[in-house]
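Supplementary Note 3. Input sequence used for the single-chain structure prediction.
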Amino acid sequence: PAFDDEENPDEVFFRLVQRDEEFERFLKLFSAASEMAATAGGTKQVYESKAKTYLKKISDWLRSNMLTAYDVTYRGATKRFAEWVKHAPPSSIRDLVNLVGSQCLEPYFQDIAPDYPSFSVLITNKNRSQAAEDAIRWITGSIKTRQGTAVLDALGLPDGDKLRPQKSRYAKWILEQLEKKGPGQVLNRSELITGNRGVEYDPRFKLEPEWVVVILASLVYSGHVTLSVTGKKIDASNLEDLGKMAIDDLKDFKHIERPRELPLRALQSLFEIL
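The predicted structure, written as discrete structure tokens, is reproduced below.
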């Protein structure tokens, strides 16, 4: 929704159809125990234990009643929760809520970001940074995880078992923006990443900064760009430095530029001597 410039972007509303005294009691007790645990001294663990007990009761109630107790409203149309998931396999409450949200918002997201990558693993706001770090470590050759591989595949960066970012539509777009710059000019971060309502993304594909950084890392690897971050420049010669940096620092990169050309004449003369 943050990609939309309208004042009221599409939203999905989950509403409890009717009040349930048992559910409300568990919810109040959980809230009270959590609040007390946050402020208590020596009795902190007692309240934490009570909060866990009530949270389990809430979870049990949701598992038993979620399908019939809630309805879902999207774009003015309301359906019972069970209607949205009637063909779904048995899943956790979180997975069912995510499924309904995906079904509702898929057409909207397709309209605003039709070329956004499709990931073979679950990517959320919580694990996106870790997934990006895994992908960068894959690029630097330190470790190859399933999650990192899935990110690279989604971004179209590998070609078989080799990394060839120049074939990726996302990497091509970045290279095209750099190509528009004259000799000696750089492509600033602000030209690759924009934002709306506090959410940052690239203006072409709506990729989050984490994915932009992964693509830039692959272009550093392939020798197409030099990445400037606070205090240093990273090119193919010191690529391993990328794997040592926090993703938040990489996301705040300053600019990219063309790598310096090799002194071909000097190298040719050297090889002639040898």
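The first strand starts at residue 12 and ends at 16. Residues 125 and 208 are 10 Å apart (CA to CA).
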